[in-house]
Each structure stands twice: as structure tokens, then as C-alpha cells.
Design goal:
There is one protein chain. The chain starts with 6 loop residues before the first strand and ends with a helix. It has 447 residues and is α/β, with parallel strands linked by helices. The chain is built from 17 helices and 20 strands. Helix 1 (15-26) runs parallel beside helix 7, helix 6 (117-130) packs across helix 11 and helix 6 crosses helix 12. It is an enzyme of class 6 (ligase).
Length: 447
Amino acid sequence: MSKENLKVVILGGGESGVGAAILAKTKGLDVFLSDMGEIKENYKKILEENTIEFEEKNHDEERILAADWVIKSPGIPKKAELVQKIKAKGIRLSSEIEFGAEFTDAKIIAITGSNGKTTTTSLIYHILKNDNMNVGLGGNIGKSFALQVAKENYDYYVLEVSSFQLDDIQNFRPYISLLLNLSPDHLDQYNYNYEEYALAKFRIAENQENDNYFIYNKDDEMSQKLLQKLDLRVKQIPFSMKEKLNEGGYTEGEKLYVKLQDEFSMRIDELSIMGTHNVANSLAASIAGKLLNISNESIRHSLMTFQAVEHRLENFAEINGVKYINDSKATNVNATYYALESMKQPTVWIVGGKDKGNDYTEIEELVKKKVKAIICMGLDNSKIINFFKDKKEVIIDTASVEDAVKAAKSIAEKGDAVLLSPCCASFDLFDNYEHRGKLFKEEVLKS
């Protein structure tokens, strides 16, 4: 069937759904958008201006199941009954990144991983932009990728890609893919099976050929295990913080190195972002830059001038000699591990929220070593309190950002740091992690 006659249904009326609807309309497809919730006014206005038919607070199942192609928002669980019915009928089901990629010849650099995706995606975008390349930023970050395919004419796209988006791909084939690391996350969506979740991440490389590149973390055990099993055709390039490599990226002493056709190196203390994990992210980004033939000078300059992503180890204030750091984006234990590891001074740690099956043993030693007090911020903090009660003397239970900041300010002394790194999702008290981080910063900055 030619694309012209396709009936396309978009499920979800947020940023990615509306972007996909506009792309479908631009390409002359028969498009209908359906959202079980309420669509925000600004998105409704866009749909109306583009004469795109839509429904909200309802799913017209008959119409949806008559589609040739359904584009699903990553927020809709794959176990949802409607999704199961779509699959049972054999209707093609795609994510917005799959849909957008079908309509562009631009080179795609796609980044996934359990932690560091947003930072590394933003860093690679910064490296390309700094080198005057014609580049768009999308996926889980910035504007909808499909919308940019409809409206812009970029030569490159740098996309942050989640496992949920990769669950719904068929042909997606990036020019360069990056898998930064793996740690158990979102396991509730993957039958509580870590390997199943990890394999979803590896789908980023499944359609790549030997003229494409896959950048991966050689220090990551699960990545190494799955690379032995999977039959990938793509050219694989590793990075490591532990061993010197003949090809790829690594650290040695005070420097980081990338060895491909030639060699790039720079001092680690010249990087603009803090923390060991960000050295790994910078290595991965530098390899991508080299593969795109960006000069060493240009990459070095970009790594020295990059500004940290908001809500990710964002050092936003110093008040009375106390540093305040917003790491609201740390929604799992592994992300908080990286945050605590990078702390150089005694730390008052604010933690808590909606627990996704966390195991705190991973950070137990770091908490003993670096944390002077724990402040819990959530509706139910019992799990955190029970785990750390014999390990830390000062644990304070709060259920609001106001109380958490008040407690932190009363404990922190000159030379300390207050770190919001919650380990948990934000949905118990906040709309999302951005909302949590924003309110935290506002509360800290109140006199």
C-alpha cells in the first residue's frame, strides 16, 4: 500500500503525538489523534489550526482498530488493553521516532542508556552546533522529532531515545547509536526482568549495518554479556574508564583519549561538567564527534564550554558557604550513585518520591562515606528510613519541598553541600522531575 492512502491514528496528544500528527498531515496521510486524557489547550490549538481531527477523554476503538498505522506515545504502557488489541489485529505500531525517521534522509545520532542520556545528547548537539552543522535536537528532549522533520530541513538529528520508544520500532536505523550504560530501571514495564529491559535498549542497533556505528560502554557488564549473544552487523566502538583501548575512547591518568584514525586527547580537569560519569559521557560524545569528522580543536572547545543540563547535577546556588545542587532528574538509584560519587564535601542528601522497586544497597557505602544527614521528601518514606536507620544518625521525614529545604538549611553548615538526588519518580508530590527541581530551586532561593 502506498503511504498516500494510509490511515494513521496517533495515540496521545502531547509533544510527540501532536508532532507526529502534523508530520502525517504534511505528508497527505489520513490522520486522526486520540487521547484518553485531556489535551492541553496549546496542543488543541495547534491541532485545530492544522485541521487535524482529534478526540479527548475517549478512545474510539472502532476507528482506531481500522487504522493501517498507529503511532503511540511512549507514555502509554505496552501492556495497555488497547495496545494489545492493535497488536492482535496486526496493525503496524510505531513510536514517534520510528515515524519521523521514515520521512527524513538526515543522518541520525541516537543516544540511549539508563543514565546520562540527556546530558550526552545535549553535549553531542552542542559539539555539532558549535561546528556550524545543520542539526536538530529531539526524541525525549526538546521539540518533537516528527515536527522538526515536517517543518525543518536538518542534515543531522541528535535524538535522546528511551527503551519505551525503542519498543515500538521496525526500521529505525541511526547513522551513529550510543548505549551509555545499563542499570535496572522501569522493570515494572519489562516483567521485572533486567535482561528484557536491557534488550529493549539494544534495539537501537538492531537495524544498523556495517556502514553505521555503535558506541558502547566496555565497562558495563550487561552490555558485554548481551554483545556476546547478539548478532549485530554494525561497526562497534567501545569506551572505557578502566582500560586502555587500541580503538575507541578511554582515560589514562589525568587525560581522556579517543583513538580512531587519529588521536584526540584533553585533560579531564578541562571538562566543564563535574563527576566521573560525565567523563564517560564526554568520551562517548567525543567518539561521535570524531566519527562525524569534527576537528580536535572544535571538540575540545565544545567540551570546555558545555553547560550542564538543568536538573542534572545542576550547581545552582551558594548561600552562606553552602552549595545547593539540583539533581532532580536522578529518578533511579544508579543515577544517585553517580551524584554522590561526584560530591567533594559533606552532603545533606534529599531523597524520596515514588519508589520503582529500588535497592539501596548500591549506594550504601557512598551514603556512609559522604552523607552527613538524610532528608526524606515523599508521601511514603518508610522504605528509605528502614534501610538507612541503622546506618545514619540524622534522618528527617518530610512530605513537602518547603519542609525538606527548611530541614536542609537548618543542618547544613559552611563548606557543606545540599543535594537533591531523589532516587525515585516524582509523581507522588509533583507533575514530573522538572516540576520537582524547579520548586526545589525556588524554595532554596527564597530568603
